[in-house]
Design a protein that fits this description.
This protein is α+β, with helices and mostly antiparallel strands. It is built from nine helices and 30 strands. The strands form six sheets. The protein has a 16-stranded antiparallel beta barrel. Strands 1-8-9-7 form a four-stranded mixed β-sheet. The radius of gyration is 35 Å and the shape is extended.
Length: 640
């Protein structure tokens, strides 16, 4: 039932009954008005001050023969002009070919306008509004003017909120169960219409829907309202809210049944589940599980459901329906980047190599400045959301100063995936050398090392974030054994954090900071790939890729200390093309042999962003302050 739209005599009569004994109708929403609020007869609905034009009621009035004036404060005036029947007729009568309105029909619309206006204004929280109409005579060729006047008065606010629980939730509250008490406290704390809030019909409906959805999502999926009531005192401008909810039975997860498997093991799905048999039902757990299965890159489609039969509430069966992807796939691609130039690549993926529950991925990339070969083996998920990792890689990079960096590595590790935190530990063999254009080696070292890595993500979107943060921390301990200089132990620490903030006026900010340091005696050689260089698209724009570091024999090599920072603000350029953004940015950073030799290089400029479904495509024009030169940075790729 909608909010009360009562004539004054009905309002006064209802007030006596409601105040004497508040009424809750089972499974029905009521909103009653009380108090002596002025009704539509505060002024005469068809003008006691002025009578309508005399004459035959069948006389027809064109659009020029009458008009409606609404006298009400914003935004109520616009609300009434949009939704009153008489306002709609006025708009339609002004259209070409419209049929004129009769005086009788106009009189009917004028008489019904105050009641319609009261319903609209009540829904906005003004239950004590004074509403009146006046009609002028259309004399001497002047149009009839219908004036609707509204004095809304004060807004009605919530003075009391009361929940009553029935069903198993009530029984668990009586038993003092902490989980039940925590759920009830959360429902009360997150109730969208607390004491002091303005009472509006749309907010009242939304608050009830939100509370019921929360209860259904947190263990009671068959919960329903037994009754809800909003008692409004229009005199005191107060609303009292009373709700009775039947929780139904508490559900728990039961057996899991999987359909659609042919080549992939069931363990790949079961080991990613965020719950165990007997755990309390949570809708979020099902959604999270479905997302985790999707990330395995084993299935084209995934659908996870629970049978919500109340007779099976203590062990609700869970059904997982999947359609497997092809066991093998191969892709080729071409691309270009301002960091490494044009490139072609080929990838091969086997989703269950030899039936051993491991994925294998091979990649070959040939570019103008970079050649790379890589082979990765990743296990299907093990218990505890762990995965095994085996990887090997070799690369050849031509640096901006024509020096050549050769590197190779082999890695064995363990990955643990969490909701926001991803942890990885691995041991690695790495070798790297840097050769000058003349053929002389300026850096050459090999090392064994062990690394612990943490990645934390808390963003609103993995591919196009606008709010939240991401962080990465690496700690490495190793020993070099073959080097131009001395062999020995070393440590390495690296951290990177990026924050995303929405700003006023449609702007968005991205702030990044990173720092790293290698700890070793000056005489101990460390592979160049474990040292630090800066410059390029994701570092300090305005400078070439990996061009800032330590100058050794006229060639740039990695430094043992590094930092970079970046501030960027961006916003959509065109309303009709919201994916196209413009940006301005400032970057700074450097890499050096020691902290006291850091000399921050600054770059700044403007750019374009196209926010595609696979991530942003970027084009930047940056000015390197120390170089006094401009540089274009871009990244785009096409899959074939």
């Amino acid at each position: 039932m909608s909010l009360g739209r009562w004539w004054p005599w009905a309002t006064r009569a209802a007030a006596c009954l409601i105040l004497a004994a508040p009424h809750i109708a089972p499974a029905q929403d009521t909103a009653a008005g009380t108090g002596g609020a002025p009704g539509v007869d505060a002024w005469a609905p068809w003008g006691s001050d002025v009578s309508p034009s005399s004459g035959d009621d069948a006389d027809m009035l064109s659009a020029q023969g009458w008009r409606l004036d609404v006298v009400a404060p914003e935004p109520l005036d616009e609300l009434l002009r949009n939704y009153l029947d008489i306002a709609r007729f006025q708009r339609e009568s002004a259209e070409p070919g419209a049929i004129p309105i009769s005086r009788a029909e106009l009189r009917r619309l004028v008489v019904s306008a105050p009641e319609q206006a009261r319903g609209l204004i009540d829904a906005e929280g003004y239950f004590g509004a004074r509403i009146g109409t006046r009609v002028t005579d259309g004399l001497d060729g002047q149009p009839i003017v219908v004036t609707l006047t509204v004095e809304p008065g004060q807004l009605t606010r919530v003075s009391k909120v009361q929940f009553v629980y029935e069903g198993e939730l009530d029984a668990r509250l009586d038993d003092g169960e902490p989980a039940a008490r925590a759920l009830v406290d959360a429902l009360s704390a997150q109730w969208a219409l607390p004491v002091g809030a303005v009472f509006r019909q749309v907010d009242w409906t939304a608050a009830k829907n939100e509370a019921l959805a929360r209860l259904r999502a947190d263990g009671y999926p068959t919960a329903s309202w037994s009754g809800t009531s909003a008692t409004v005192d229009a005199t005191d401008r107060q609303a009292r809210l009373f709700m009775v909810v039947d929780s139904g039975p508490a559900f728990a997860f039961g057996e899991v049944r999987i359909e659609g498997l042919h080549r992939q093991p069931a363990s790949a799905i079961l080991n990613t589940a965020p719950f165990r048999k007997g755990d309390a039902y949570r809708e979020k757990d099902l959604l999270d599980w479905q997302e985790r299965i999707q990330k395995l890159n084993l299935f084209d489609s995934i659908f996870v459901t629970t049978d919500l039969d109340p007779t099976q509430a203590s062990a609700a069966p869970v059904l997982v329906q999947v359609r497997e992807q092809q066991l093998q796939s191969a892709t080729t691609g071409i691309g270009v980047s301002s960091d490494t130039g044009p490139r072609v690549s080929a990838d091969y993926l086997h989703r269950n190599l030899f039936g051993l529950d491991w994925q294998a991925k091979a990649r070959v990339q040939l570019g103008q400045n970079n050649r790379l070969g890589r082979l990765d083996f990743t296990s299907h998920p093990w218990e505890g959301r762990r995965r095994g990792l085996l990887s090997t890689q070799a690369s050849r990079t031509v640096e901006d100063d024509k020096a050549i960096t050769l590197s190779a590595r082999a890695r064995v590790g363990l990955l643990r995936e969490g909701e926001r935190l991803e942890r990885m530990q691995y041991v690695e063999f790495e070798t790297a050398s840097v050769t000058a254009n003349a053929g002389d080696k300026v850096s050459d070292a090999s090392a064994y090392s062990a690394t612990a890595q943490w990645i934390y993500r808390d963003v609103d979107s993995q591919t196009l974030p606008t709010r939240g943060s991401t962080s990465l921390l690496q700690l490495t301990l190793g020993r070099s054994y073959s080097a131009l200089k001395e062999k020995g132990f070393f440590g390495r620490a690296y951290a990177r954090t990026t924050w995303y903030w929405p700003l006023p006026a449609g702007w968005y900010a991205t702030v990044r900071g990173e720092a790293g340091q290698v700890f070793a005696r000056d005489e101990v050689s460390v592979p160049d790939t474990l040292l630090f260089r800066v410059g390029g698209d994701e570092s300090v724009r305005g400078y070439a890729y990996r061009s800032l570091g330590v100058i050794t024999d006229g060639v740039v090599t990695g430094g043992r200390v590094m930092f970079t920072s970046s501030v960027e603000v961006a916003r959509p350029i065109l309303a009709r093309l919201p994916a196209l953004w413009g940006a301005v940015f400032v970057d700074a950073g450097d890499a050096a042999s020691s902290a006291d030799k850091l000399d921050p290089r600054v770059g700044y400029g403007v750019g374009l962003r196209y926010r595609s479904p696979v991530g942003p495509l970027r084009l930047d024009i940056a000015h390197g302050q120390q170089l006094q030169d401009w540089r274009i940075h871009f990244s785009v790729g096409i899959s074939l």
